[in-house]
Write a structure and sequence with these properties.
The structure holds 2 protein chains of 2 kinds. Chain A is mainly alpha-helical. In chain A, 81% of the residues lie in helices and 5% in strands. Chain A has 4 helices and 2 strands; from the N terminus they run ββαααα. Chain A has a two-stranded antiparallel sheet. By secondary structure, chain B is mainly α. Chain B is globular, with a radius of gyration of 19 Å. Classes of the chains: A mainly alpha, B mainly alpha. At the A-B interface, strand 2, helix 1, helix 2, helix 3 and helix 4 of A face helix 3, helix 4, strand 1, helix 5 and helix 6 of B.
Chain lengths: 108, 231
């Protein structure tokens, strides 16, 4: 283990790399909560926060689905449709997975 | 502030459906880390204290045998970029958790991850206030994540193809099903969701990486803030 000329080798370098990632990740986990302390909860901010969970989900899965191909899209839509009828996550999840796995099995 | 044993168990139970997908993902991470030459202890430490799947996977692409302050800073920056969605997740639950003591929130937020946030957000949207639900879901997911790391590290190559069972799609499908309880009517949900989807797609086409999540989600939230409820 040595640190010469700004280069970190061996276990020390790896330790620092993992620590840097951990710090960056924890910073992301807490900073949204900390920042919101300084934002006044006006009606508009409340509406924005109320819309945020759905917006995060849509922004995550729409590009992911289109990138993952027809089997993934079929699975996501099945999950969505089944969920709106039965309102039980596990049933909707299994149905979506079955459709996606089936679509892949037949070559999509 | 509510924090009950029942809430803890409820949160843990709500997290169970996503466990198989997370385990498959973390096994894949353990296998990839072994190929990159990380030790088993380093791999386990990364899962335990970084605890963020996409960032862990991507970091292996940037992994160095020798680190300099510059490459360490790049690694931290890339990690923060991949995890920037967590800033928005935290902001969205802040009105719920703000009354809890700061040390408690500091611990609870360490375990915050996509699935536990979504479980908590849904629970809160339906009127629930017990913070133990968020904590219970986070703990169960963290334990599964950490437990799956070393089996992946040592035996990942022996496992069957998870793609065939669509295990890689558990989390996206779980996310999709969660849209149903988050729907609050056409006027409240359709404009922000539509904008979020369009902006995310456009950003994905133009900017590499995971910026599309943050860009889409922020545009959706701003749209939500601008659309007034009917008087």
């Amino acid at each position: 283990v040595s640190a010469t000329e700004g280069l970190l080798t061996g276990a020390l370098g790896t330790f620092l790399a993992i620590a840097a990632m951990a710090a960056a990740t924890y910073g992301c986990r807490v900073s949204g909560v900390v920042l919101m302390r300084y934002v006044r909860l006006t009606p508009a901010v409340k509406r924005g926060l109320a819309a945020l969970p759905g917006a995060i989900v849509v922004a995550t899965i729409v590009p992911l689905a289109l990138r993952s191909g027809p089997a993934a899209i079929a699975g996501l839509l099945t999950g969505l449709v089944v969920m709106s009828f039965v309102r039980t996550e596990i049933v909707a999840l299994v149905a979506g997975l079955a459709v996606a796995a089936g679509a892949r099995a037949v070559g999509f | 502030v509510t924090f009950t044993r029942e809430g803890l168990l409820h949160g843990a139970r709500l997290a169970l459906p996503v466990i198989p997908g997370l385990v498959a993902y973390c096994v894949a991470f353990g296998t990839a880390a072994a190929h990159k030459g990380l030790s088993s202890g380093e791999t386990l430490a990364m899962s335990a204290i970084v605890y963020a799947g996409a960032a862990q996977m991507l970091s292996l692409e940037l992994w160095q045998q020798v680190w300099s302050p510059g490459t360490l800073a790049t690694l931290a920056l890339v990690t923060a970029t991949v995890n920037a969605r967590m800033i928005l997740m935290g902001a969205s639950i802040q009105p719920w958790i703000r009354q809890a003591p700061t040390p408690f929130n500091a611990v609870n937020l360490f375990f915050l991850t996509d699935a536990s946030w979504l479980i908590g957000a849904r629970y809160h949207a339906e009127g629930g206030r017990d913070l133990a639900v968020l904590f219970g879901a986070g703990i169960v997911i963290w334990v599964s994540w950490v437990s799956a790391t070393l089996p992946g590290y040592f035996a990942g190559a022996l496992l069957p193809d998870t793609r065939l069972l669509a295990l890689d799609l558990i989390l996206p499908i779980f996310f999709a099903t969660m849209l149903v309880p988050l729907w609050r009517g056409v006027r409240a949900a359709a404009p922000p969701w539509g904008v979020a989807g369009v902006v995310a797609l456009a950003t994905q086409a133009l900017v590499p990486g995971y910026a599309f999540i943050v860009a889409g989600a922020l545009s959706g939230a701003i749209t939500g803030a601008l659309v007034r409820e009917r008087d």
